Please model this.
Amino acid sequence: MAGGIAMLPSGGAHDAPTEGSRTYAIVVCVFASLGGIFFGYDQGVTGGVLVMDSFLNDFCVDYDGNSYTNCTAASADLPDNWSTFTTLYNVLYYIGCIFGAYLGGYIADKYGRRATIFSAAYNTALSSSHPHVFATFHAEATT
Model:
C-alpha cells in the first residue's frame, strides 16, 4: 500500500481572485449564523418559561392533583406527571425542528431557494403576529 502527497502546481488559472468582496462574504456569514443564534435563544427562553410562576400556576398547579409546593420542588422530587409533561414540552420542540427541516428541504428542492426563504419569512411573520391579533380581537370582544 503506497502513500504520498499530491502536489499541485501553483500559478495556474485557479489562483485568480474570485468575484465578490470580503465584506459581502462576512455579512452573508453573519446573517447565516443568526439561525443558530436564534435556535439557542429559543432554548434559553423555553428553559426560563418552565420555572415561571405564571406558567406553573397555569399548567402545573391543579394538574392531576399537583400543588404549588409539588411543582416548585427540587428536580428529583417533582411529581412524575409534571416531569413527563416538561420532558414532552422540550422534546416536541426538537420534533418540530426535524419536521421543519424536512419540509424546508422539500420546498427548496421543489421550488428553489428563494421560495423557501420567502415561505419561511412569511410563516414566521404570520405566526408572530397571531398573538397580537388574538389579543386585539379578544380585547375588543370583552369591552
In short: The chain has five helices and no strands. Residues 75-134 form one domain. The mean pLDDT is 80.
